[in-house]
Amino acid sequence: MRNADDLAFAIQQKSAEEFLNMNRKKEAKVAGPNPAWSKPPRDFLKINSDSSFSAITGQGGWGFVIRDDEGSVIHAAAGKLERLRDALQAEVIACSEGAKAAAEKRICKVIFETDSLILKQAMADDSIS
């Protein structure tokens, strides 16, 4: 199991790779039904992250919430982003901020949840480290 610092580094590394490949491949978010939030297993916390991005202005925002196995909020934060290249960059920043907050609070047993398929794949790929 990765610790939060290792995961944050892996996410940033994957973001750099995606940045280099961005002219070859564009990410498109597909709107669909929003499944209900599910609690993490006992003794785990869940970090839900999301972002926004405007291709016209290059601006966006990030946010995350950390909840325990009862659904209670442990920590949450959000912020504004400038000079973004794409939606994936905003998603990575949102997840990374959640990972940093978990590391600062010495939270180790976490489950990350995001709606970005590329980010999900990057976090699941153990070869990225």
Question: Please, could you describe this protein's structure?
Answer:
There is one protein chain. With 129 residues, this protein is an alpha+beta fold. 33% of the residues lie in helices and 23% in strands. It has a four-stranded mixed sheet with strand order 3-2-1-4, covered by helices on one side. β2 and β3 form a beta hairpin. The longest helix is centred in the last third of the chain and has 18 residues, at 87-104. The two termini are 13 Å apart. The model has no long low-confidence stretch (mean pLDDT 85).
Q: Going across the major beta sheet, what is the strand order?
A: 3-2-1-4
Number of domains: 1
Quaternary state of this entry equals single chain
Shape: globular
Could you tell me the number of beta strands? Answer: 4
CATH top level assignment: Alpha Beta
How is the CATH topology named? Answer: Nucleotidyltransferase, domain 5
The portion of residues forming beta strands comes to 15-25%
* C-alpha end-to-end distance: 13 Å
Report the CATH architecture: 2-Layer Sandwich
The average pLDDT score comes to 85
- How many individual helices? 3
Question: Roughly how much helix do the residues carry, as a percent range?
Answer: 25-40%
* CATH superfamily label: Ribonuclease H-like superfamily/Ribonuclease H
Question: What are the segments in which pLDDT stays under 50 over at least 5 consecutive residues?
Answer: none
Provide the succession of SSEs: HEEEHEH
- Provide the structure class: alpha+beta
CA-based gyration radius: 14 Å
Main sheet summary = 4 strands, mixed
Domain RNase H type-1: 41-129
Protein name: RNase H type-1 domain-containing protein
InterPro entries: RNase_H-like_dom_plant, RNase_H-like_EbsB-rel, RNaseH-like_sf, RNaseH_domain, RNaseH_sf
GO molecular function: nucleic acid binding; RNA-DNA hybrid ribonuclease activity
